[in-house]
Write a structure and sequence with these properties.
By secondary structure, the protein is an alpha+beta fold. It has one domain. 52% of the residues lie in helices and 24% in strands. It is built from 2 helices and 3 strands. A 3-stranded antiparallel sheet has the order 1-2-3, covered by helices on one side. α1 runs antiparallel to α2.
Amino acid sequence: MTVPVSALADAELRMGSVKLILGFGLIIAVIYGSWMIIPPYFANYQFEDGIKNEALHSTYTTKTEDDIRNAVFKQASDLEIPVTKEQIKVQRTGGLGQGSVVIDVDYNVHVDFPAYPLDLHFHNNTANKGVY
């Protein structure tokens, strides 16, 4: 039994259309996933840089642990990072320029994908010691 040439061409055309639709679907899925995932990582990068600067500057000032915690909380709020003041651990030892400041922050960001909800866990920790 032989299959007409036009039927083979028609089947190849349909298969090409299916591949094209699946390809576009995959591209859209990657773009959507990136749209949802990249902003929390970028905000975390900025937040991590901010707490490093806060630890550096706070080592050489007379800020209390609560003042440092409030400054870190303000940075988190500005970046829309879901963190509470209780999640921000600040430890200050020694005096002006001769002690150290340790800042530790743990938080989760919920990403709500349609079929697979995801929680991203971030842990930021920085320490700075005085030069004296």
